[in-house]
Amino acid sequence: MAEFDYKGSWNETLSQLRTDLGEEEFSGWFSDIKYLRAGENSIVVGFPSGFHRDSVITRYKNIISAKLQELTGREIALEFEIVAGTDENASSAQNNPAKNTAGKEFREPDSSQAQKPKRKQHSHMRDDYTFENYIIGENNSFAANAAIAISRNPGTAYNPFFIYGGVGLGKTHLMQAIGNFIHENSESKVIYVTSEEFMNEYVQGVQVKDLSPLRNKYRYADVLLIDDIQFFQERGEAIKDEFFHTFNTLVNAKRQLVMTCDRHPDELRNLSDRLITRFNQGLKVDLQPPRYEVRCAILKATAENRGTVIPDEVINLISKNISSNIRDLIGTLNTLISFTEIMKQPITLDIAQQKLRDIFASRKQANLSIEIIQKAVADFFSLSVNDLKSQKRTQKIVFPRQIAMFICREMTDFSTTEIGEAFGGRDHTTVMHSISKIEGLLITDPTLDSTIENLKRNVKELSTRQ
Ligand code: ADP
Ligand code: MG
User: Fold this and answer.
1) Residue 316's CATH number
2) How far is the CA of 129 from the centre of ligand 2 (A)?
3) What is the CATH number of the domain that holds 71?
4) CATH number at residue 425
5) Distance 103 CA to ligand 1 centre (A)
6) Domain extent for 190
7) Domain containing 261 — which CATH number?
8) Cα 127 off chain centre by
9) Which residues have CB under 6 Å of ligand 1?
10) Which one, 95, 247, 379, 429, has least CB within 10 Å?
C-alpha cells in the first residue's frame, strides 16, 4: 500500500495560520493538535479532547481545508481523532467549573456527546447566532476570541465590551453568540435589547410616571447586551442619563455589559464626556470586512446550513463581487438558493451570473447618487460641489476630488465612465488613476481609513435625509 505524506503541507498550513491568527490565538487552539497519518486524499489529526476538536472544526475547518487545497492542489478531507491523556488543562477545567459573576455554576458544554441535549433558547435572540456559526478570519479573530473569553467568564475581564464596525459585519451575531452561550450554560439572566427598544421603554415609563419596571428589569440583569447604541446620540439628556446610571450600576456590580455601535466611541456625537469615558473603559474591538477566503468560507457554511450544495465557482463569483458587507453576501446567496428552489433548477454559474446582474441593477437604482457623495465630501473639506467638478488642480481640491471618486466607486455601482462624467466630464482613466492613488495612500497613511469611513457615514446620513 502506498504511503501518503502530507506532513509538509500540514506544517505549512499551521505556519500560515499562525501568521493569520497571531501567536496567542494560534497556540490556544493549534499547539496540541497532532498530525497522525494520511491517506491518498485525507489527513488524520489528533486532538486532546472532544470539546477542543469540535471547537476547531466549527471555527477553522473551512479555512484549514482551503489552505490545504491551495498547498496540495487537491481536495483533502480532514479526519479527526481524540488522542487521550494529552490535555491536563482540559480535564482540570472540567473538574473545576468556572463560576460566573452571579456565583452560579457554569457548565462547559461537552460537545463530543453524540446526542446533544436540546438547546435552551432565549426568547429575544436568534438561536442561529452562535459561535458555532461564526466564521473566524483575520478580520474578526481578535473580536471573536475576546467574545469567547467573555462568554466563558462574564463580568470579570473585559467589561464593558464594546463591538464596533460597519453595517452587516456581524456585530449583532457576535453579541448574541455571547448571550446565547451564557444563557445556555448558566442560570444567568441575559437581556438583549436594541438601544431603540430601551429608549421606547423609557418613554413609556415616563408617560405612566413609573420608571421602576424599567430599572428592575435592566439593573438586575447578569448580562446586558445593548445593540446599536449610536441611536442614543439623537435623543434627549434624560434618556442618556438613564442609560448612564444603568451602565454604572451593572458594571459596578460586575455584571457583564456588551454594546455594539457603528463607530468608535470617540466618534459619537451629542453624548456627554462621562458616557464616552465609560465606553472607553473596557475592551473595544472592531469588525472589518472579511477577505476573499473568509467570504468563501462564510458562503459555504451558509449553504451547508441550508442543506444546499453550491458549486465552488458560484461561491467564488459571489465572493468576488460582494466584499464589504456580510449581510449582502449571505443575502445574495439566499436569493440565489430561493430562486433555484422555486424554479427547480440546479444552481449553475450561468444562473448565478444572471441573478447577480439583476441584484446589482436593482441596488444601483435604490442606491446613492453621485451628487450626494460629492456634497458630503465637499462639506467635509469646506469646498463646494462645483470645486470638485471644476478643472482646478490645486492640491486643496485634487485630493478631496480623488477621495470623492474613490467613495463613488466603493459605495455605488456606477462605472468609471459615469463617475468621470459626473466630475466635470473627466475621462475614465482619470477616475481609475484617482482610485488607485487613494488605494495606495490607504496602505501608507493609517489615518486615511477612518477619514473615509467618516465620510461614508456622512454620505449615508445625507442620503437618508433626502
Ligand atoms: P451587524 O449587526 O454588524 O449589522 P449582523 O450581526 O446582523 O451584522 O450580521 C449580518 C449577517 O451576516 C448575519 O446573517 C450574520 O449571521 C452574518 N455574519 C456576520 N459575520 C459572520 C461570520 N463571521 N460568520 C458567519 N456569518 C456571519
Ligand atoms: Mg446589528
Assistant:
1) 1.10.8.60
2) 11
3) 3.30.300.180
4) 1.10.1750.10
5) 32
6) 141-286
7) 3.40.50.300
8) 17
9) 133-135, 140, 167-173, 298, 326-327, 330
10) 95
What residue owns the CA closest to ligand 1's atom 20? 170
Given a contact cutoff of 8 angstroms between Cβ atoms, the answer to whether 227 and 194 are in contact is yes
Identify whether residues 277 and 315 lie together within a single domain.
no
Please give the sequence-ordered ranges of beta strands (E in DSSP) within 263-327, or none if there are none: 283-287
Name the closest-CA residue to atom 13, ligand 1: 327
CA of 40 to the centre of ligand 1 (A): 37
Give the distance (Å) from ligand 2 centre to CA of residue 431: 34
Residues 208 and 183 grouped into a single domain: yes
- Given 308, 341, 366, which residue is the final one in a domain? 366
Report in angstroms the alpha-carbon separations of 8 from 35, 126, 317, 405. 10, 42, 31, 46
Out of 326, 330, 337, 453, mutate this one to test ligand 1's pocket (max ligand atoms within 8 Å of CB): namely 326
Residue 332 domain-assigned (yes or no): yes
Establish if 116 belongs to a structural domain. no
- Per DSSP, the three-state class of 227 is strand
Helix axis angle for 312-321 and 326-343, nearest 10°, is 140
Q: How far is the CA of 174 from the centre of ligand 2 (A)?
A: 9
Given 258, 286, 314, the domain boundary residue is 286
Cell 482613466: give the residue: 429
Distance 306 CA to ligand 1 centre (A): 16
Residues in the chain: 466
Same domain, residue pair 165 and 279: yes
Same domain, 341 and 243: no
Prediction pTM value: 0.62
Its sign, for the CA torsion 118, 120, 126, 132, is negative
Please tell me the residue having the least CA distance from ligand 1 atom 14.
327
Range list of H helices, 117-236:
141-152, 171-185, 195-207, 212-218
C-alpha of residue 90 to centroid of ligand 1, in Å: 30
How many separate domains does the chain show? 4
Indicate if 323 and 215 belong to the same structural domain: no
Mutate to test the pocket of ligand 1, among 136, 175, 327, 328 (most ligand atoms within 8 A of CB): 327
The three cell numbers of residue 227 are 445593540
47 inside domain: yes
Q: Which ligand is nearest to the CA of 163?
A: 1
Q: Tell me whether residue 98 is in a domain.
A: no
Amino acid (one-letter) located at 87:
D
Residue 303 and residue 400 in one domain: no
The residue whose C-alpha atom lies closest to atom 25 belonging to ligand 1 is 134
pLDDT tens digit at each of 466 positions of the chain: 456 778 888 888 888 888 777 776 777 778 788 888 888 888 888 887 666 677 677 678 888 888 888 778 788 888 888 776 443 333 333 333 333 333 333 444 444 444 555 678 999 999 999 999 999 999 999 999 999 999 999 998 799 999 999 889 999 999 999 999 999 999 999 999 999 999 999 999 999 999 999 999 999 999 999 999 999 998 999 999 999 999 999 999 999 999 999 999 998 988 999 999 999 999 999 999 999 999 999 999 999 988 898 999 999 999 988 887 899 899 999 989 988 888 888 999 999 998 888 777 656 545 578 999 999 999 999 999 999 999 999 999 999 999 999 999 888 877 788 899 999 999 888 998 999 899 889 888 888 988 998 999 898 888 877 6
